Amino acid sequence: MAALALFNWGNVHMSRARKKIEFKDDASREAMLEGINVAFEWTKKEYLEAGERYAEALRIKPDFYEGLLALGQQQFERARLTWYYALSCKVDLSNWSYAEVIELYNSAEGNVDKGMDMWEAAQSQRITHLTDRTKIKPVLQGTILDDLFKDTSAEDAAVRIKDLRSQMNLLRGTILYERSMMEYRLGIPVWQECLEVALEKFQLAGASATDIGVMMKNHISNDSSMDGMFYELVGYELLDVKSNGLSDVLLNFFSVWVFRIGVQD
């Protein structure tokens, strides 16, 4: 119960970190940039608070796969926030220290993979249990124990497991996709390998060939002119289906939210 309480506490901070910032229609560029700076520090603080709560939960319950997955997403969102904030500040990337962001990405990938492995093992045991239970249900039919066997069937559980597995693979793909864009911009050679693995994860998540094509087209390596026009920074909005060209199937699974703030030169 203590681990779950800490997990929920962390979720509250994550929700606060994702709060969308609003600007007045007539706000000046200077006012927008100042607002972004303030929001960045506030959002970073909320992410750190969330991470501490998830870490505490995992110290109490090391096999808490939900905590590992949440911690992995928190680390990914911190890395992503830091990167786009650096772009918005127009830092000199040739002298920018990106070691912390790389470490966040490494930790995010490791925690998500570990959490998913734990989850897969737990679901395998659950399906076995439900299958065995189905075999003995006819024997208990009409007895007082029959009520114990009226919840989830093995078939229903399998459908839910498939959906959750898709969401996890989409998260894994999104982490790698975002990382590959940063690595491309920084001139790190492994960006293409990251992108290839990301697309594999999207396929495992149920993305169609059209979805994959759109993701390839939108990658910074194909259109660097988009970089610098929009900065994904502090607020979050669901991806626009029409403007991004992604199918409803992929969007239904998309667990990472995107927000964009136009800052013109």
Automatic annotation (TrEMBL):
InterPro entries: PHOX1-4. It comes from the Eukaryota. This is Uncharacterized protein. It comes from Linum tenue. The lineage of its organism: Eukaryota, Viridiplantae, Streptophyta, Embryophyta, Tracheophyta.
